[in-house]
User: Fold this.
Amino acid sequence: MIYLDNAATSPMRPEVRDAMLPYLESVFGNPSGLYAVGREAQAAVDAARTTVAACLGARPAEVIFTSGGTESINTALQGIAYAMRRAGAGAHVITTAIEHHAGLHAAQFLEESGFDVTYIGCDHSGHVRIDEFAAALRPDTILASVMLANNEVGAVQPIAEIAGVLRDYAHRQQHRVLLHTDAVQAPGWLPLEVNALGVDALSLSSHKFGGPKGSGILYLRRATPFHQLLLGGGQEMQKRAGTENVPGIVGTGVALERAATGIRERAARVRTLRDRLRDGILAATSGTTVNGCQQSCVPNNLNIAFDGIESESLVLGLDAAGIAASSGSACSNSTWEPSHVLMAMGVPIRRAVGSVRFSLGDATTEADIEEVIRAVPREVARIRAENASPVRV
Ligand SMILES: Cc1ncc(COP(=O)(O)O)c(C=O)c1O
Assistant:
């Protein structure tokens, strides 16, 4: 199989698996246990927390382990919004129309709970506009949540600039707005230094960067107002109750450390492959358009609209040829709606429904790319011919 759906999930790194194995077998203790096997599990969780904190330029006490990106995002949005409202700071939240459904649906839930939410749009390349963001700020704004890299078109959002706008606003208005970013698509491709980004909260999902599924990270800056969502035991510094997923946490630490190493070289190699894939497909297939500008975006993402076909047909045709790609967002594949991201970018609906995302990874080779460049025009031509042929009875 040629796997070009790394934005949906990535293969687990062998060293991650190796690091996890002891915690699936002999070191099975509950980290709360006072005996040796419990203490050993607790030591592994502590070590992973220290590693993750170092990768993010954060303090270990600011790292909360969760069950994945979705939980981190929901926890950040609800946890901060409720705490700020309770403190009387206001009830207005700003987010974007191009967030992953985890962020969008969490924001919609806040609306149902009495918050006012502004959804800012984006330009044709999938980037939010700083001026639109700044104009949305109000005296009762408490939280902004803007993703770092979009999962469908790869556009990297100007988070550090947005943080700068919020700092100026706080200075002028004496009113602080907290900033969360969904950075799920960023590890391995972008540096994730929380102070350089200027964020108060940041969400990650381990399986997107060579770690295990069902594990994630929420960075929460020290002293950020926070209302705990999952109640129970005192785990995760009283911020997220529940017995720790020790193997998942250990794997997360190793995977993030690997993803944070050699970013520049990895990005350069994959960008070259991505550009070759784009140029090869566009040269050999008529009626194709790249969604997004490919500038200021993660280097592994290529989203192409194929005129006159439905993306599902192409994805299934490529699958039969041993190639895994995605029609829009993998997470919204079950719903037959055009991508909300492509709609927000102003992509015409007929193009949006024929758009396919190819997302490369560390394992992608030149030979893979050449094979895909041969297969895509062949499959597109076949589907277009089928669509054009009269219906037989
Ligand atoms: C940008 C983004 N945010 C959040 C998520 C949710 O992550 P998970 O499904 O691992 O909880 C995804 C998954 O595709 C994503 O791409």
Summary: The two ends are 36 Å apart (CA to CA). The pocket of pyridoxal-5'-phosphate is lined by residues 68-70, 73, 100, 102, 147, 151, 182, 184-185, 205, 207, 331 (CB under 6 Å).
